[in-house]
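Figure 2 data, in text form.
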Amino acid sequence: MTSNDPTFGSAGLHARLRHLEDQARFTLDVLDMAFNLGDFQTCINRLEEPSALLDEAVARIGELVQFSVTAFYLVDEHTSDFVLGLCRPSQEGPAIEREVERLIETGVFALAVRENRPITVYSSDNSHRLVLSVLATTSRVRGMFIGAMPRTEKNLSGILLSLLSLILKHCANAIESFELYRLLREHDRRQREFIDTLSVTVFETDPAGILRSLNRAAATQFGIDPATLPPAAGLLDLLAPDERPRMAAAIAEALRNGQPASLACEALHASGTTFPAVLHLAPCMHDGLCTGLRGVVGRRPVE
């Protein structure tokens, strides 16, 4: 080779340098896109259904690829079956379900579940390409993504498939978080329902003694509707006015000690009458700090 070879000449070196700069910019753009595409904004702990997560995933996928049909199958928590959770446009749902039935019969669907990357197959009439990618976390499979595009469209590049996988990985993690929050809410609901069946008043306060919750027995025992309590109602408001200074000191001592306590007192009915009661208190502890009180108000036998 001579110094006149364009590969090693000035023009050749400049061309290679420009190519490397373009590649570096492209890589940075892809990394930035990957970071933004994985940032789901939906407030998961407030959702009742995962459809908002799927809608957000559809929007983010649309920033990468314009699929003619986009569908998500989710695993039913009770039966472990794959159930169509969302299809856009919705009128294509029956066609997607027919395609999925065929893919299940041929074993392609099971293959897509096992794969850790998107796979591409043709539709039954060979008019579309179907991209299948499992929704999976490190612990379990959560569903399946299916995107359809006309066969005349170009194949998706490796980079686009990788970005698609990234979105779906974040989507799977978001769905798993949603399911955990749903189980927690269900547990809390059942616990509240059980507490509401008790015949004694059960309460919970914050560290300042403000009532966070009060069960339905308060309506019978105190003549008050827990649903209509003002936001600043406190535990001491359930007691006779003359008892409040003494009980405030006793409750503060229980909070400081972090130990359960039973305190005899006079409780106040909404009618203005008082009755002998006993407060059974249990501090709520977290990382060594008292975050409030839970307890029961029982009637004290008259001596």
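Caption note: The first strand starts at residue 69 and ends at 75.
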